[in-house]
Give the backbone structure.
Amino acid sequence: MKKLSWIDFKSICKNNLLTMLMEEKDSYYLITAANGPVFYRCDLVKENPASVDQLDFETNFKNNCNKKIIRNDAFAEKTLSTGKRLFRRAHGIQHTLVANSDNVIEFTTPYVWCKITTMEIINLPEVMQVDLTVHADINGNFKTSIDGPTIPTGQSKYKLNQFGFNVNASKDFYKDHSEYDADLFQNMIIRVVIKNNTNLTTTVGINFTLHEVVTPRAADPPGRGPDGAADDPRRHSARRNVPPSE
């Protein structure tokens, strides 16, 4: 279990959409959260007068602690205390690497709003360096939040951010997993540049783990569609062009 300050603890919970669990002691609040196998803890001391951290917790977070999260298996959904659902969406693409070249591979975000946590590269013949960037769509447009405006850049596939710089990807299998998810919006592009400085030509596979953020319709109970049947990812295809409301 990782013991953190209040500032770091609430930041991790916010970035990973974690629900806080709280046990109130005589002299402090015992606050915990779990992200898969990783557990976090914050001991927030009660003071008189109350500290800034204590006031922040008691005013903005205490009443939302210990909310029930409905979880099904990993390939189904997680229902958050906000009512939004995260649906795990794994995507794979393939690309044949050209020898002695920087190979540019692109993946276009297919969902109105999703979060990315993991990327894998399979079948690299040798250790190779990789750059990872995120770009605006083919028309040069992007968003920074689901309710925010579409921002034009005037340049097709404008680079918005780089999150991998000459990363050394291991032979055969490489996995990059982050505790902090990143938001992606429809048609934004993830670009993977594999620097093949060898004479080898081979086909590699790249997998992305995304989590689609969906606001359920009032008639749909957790894990069920409008007819009461178990949820099917195809049910959401018609909704992907409509941004979820808060």
Notes: The two ends are 33 Å apart (CA to CA). Helices lie at 6-16, 52-60.
